[in-house]
Amino acid sequence: MMNGDYFPPFLYFSLGAWLFLFIFFIAFCIYLARLPDDKILQYKAKAIETKKKLGIKIFKF
Amino acid sequence: MGEIQLIHLTVIVVVIAIIFLFGLFASRRIKRSEDMLVSGRALGLFFVACSLSAEYMGGLGTIGVSERAFNEGMGVIWYHIAASTGILLFGLLFAHYYRKYGIQTIPEYLYYLFDIKTWKVNALLNFIAYTFFTVIEVVALGSILAGLTGFPIKACSVGAAIFITLYVLAAGMWSIAYVSMFYMALIYLGLPLAFFYIMKFRIPELVGSGGFAGFTGLAQAMTHNGLDPDFFFSPFSLSPMVVIGFFVGGILAVPAAQATVNYAFGARNWKIARLAPILAAFLILPLSIWTGTMGLYAKTAALTGEPKLALITVLTHIPPWIGAIGALAIFAAILSTADSILFAAGSILAKDLFQRWLVPHADDRTLLRWTRISIVVVGCVATIGATTVPELLKQAYFVYTLRAVTLVCVFFGIYYRRAHPDAAFWSIIVGFIAATLYQFNIPIDYKPYFWNVHVSIFTVMIAVPVFLVVSFVRKWTPETAVEVPPLYSEELK
User: Per the CB < 8 Å rule, is A14 touching B88?
Assistant: First the structure.
């Protein structure tokens, strides 16, 4: 039926996805390392921006 | 008590002692409430990644996956691929928004995005949901412990609740972060070890394996026993709807779930908060290879007729010490979910309900004391609940769908310009009522009309249109969301 080194099809998917995540992690590491620390200021939630535009004060808890 | 149970008990006692030592060690870091609630925002990459992934690896990801592989084959790998996708999306789309404002709880972020009433309703419902869920997890832990040691389930549940409460009490998020590293080591040691032992030594002994080890022998034995290896080893052995359900569930379960994402709040900086979920996704993914294959082995070897017991039964059919470490890995997976959920309920009770809402001018010492009291309160509720109303709690599981509605609110708040505070408030209220009606079939059984989808998917199907319609109808004005919180320090920049 099969030889002694049978590799089931689900393993291609699972290990393939694992490899993808590993490569993605390394790439994302490099991407984040290159971003300036103050880049965070540019991530703006739309609802918070709407409040600020209308002059609605938001307080830190 | 048999020899195997004695070995299990010995290993469990040793592990409990180690965990208490971690708790004691971590407690030296607690100086203020922020240390307890978000580890003083000092968690590094591995602490955050291990805490995130350990929280996600619960009973469903271990025993549940094995059960599903036993019944329906290795298409179950999609469960962890979907879970990894959910965690990945949290890192890519949400973590930096949370970390930007240094939040400690998800309801707090809903105030920043929307208004006071949305924060309050979400804090209250989240607290109830997480408290219920703590009891459910404690009962699950009690069942595992009872299976391993032979003691009664109720006694084991009470013991588990007290044990978790004590080590979370020692240092809050710091305790969980240290212990999660230990749990991940146990999971990454115990499950692969049991898996490789079975593949190398047990499979060649199966009738029909032809003496081959590994997947070759397993496939030969399956054919011999009338099971089709092409089906059971296929990544597509589950129906597309089930796989879609995994993805929807995996994506809805993570990005706004306090118990899962609060470790990113404790990250040292926003880059670690974004990167750690990617590493956590990587750590979670291979779990179904090990647990699923062991489920298939249990079926092929006819070790049990009860799919739920497949994984535990396999671990009792290998050398006791290897089996005990494997069983501990499952124990660790469930324990790591339970401690995070107990801590999430305690955090929301202490920070949102007590300090921000009820006693806004409490000083930090009082808050620290209240955080500890909150953990004890939730622990006591879990202890009492585990012994009195477990059947009711199985039904109460649906309250956990709240995290899906919260995700709808957070997602639209970040990415949809017209997202309105009233939309967030009403989608939470309507979503919660809809989930209750759907879960308890009031007044009719809705499930056949909604393709029998899971209650959390149904809740999102209701919450999204409610959010969009209310946002479309209501207009932002300078008077919208002007109510100030009971406690505030400075204006948000």
Answer: no
